[in-house]
Amino acid sequence: MADHHPQSRKSVNAPQRLLLIRPSALGDVCRTVPVLVSLRKAFPTAQIDWLVQVPFAPAVANHPDLHAVVDFDRKRFSKLLIRPDRWGSFRAFTGQLRESRYDMVFDLQGLARSGFFSWATRAPVRVGFANAREGGHLGYTHRYHVDANLHTVDRMLGLLDAHGIRPEVDMRLFTPANDLAWADDYLKEIGVGKQPFALLAPTAQWLCKCWPIDRFVKLAKRLQDEKNLPVVVIAAPHEQAIVQPLLDALDTSLPQTTIGRMMGLIQRSALMVCHDSGPLHMAVGLGTPTVSLFGPTDPAKVGPYQQNQWVVQPENLTAEELKQSYRARKDDQSIMRRITEEQVWDRVQQRLEL
Question: What is the value of pTM for the model shown?
Answer without folding.
Answer: 0.93
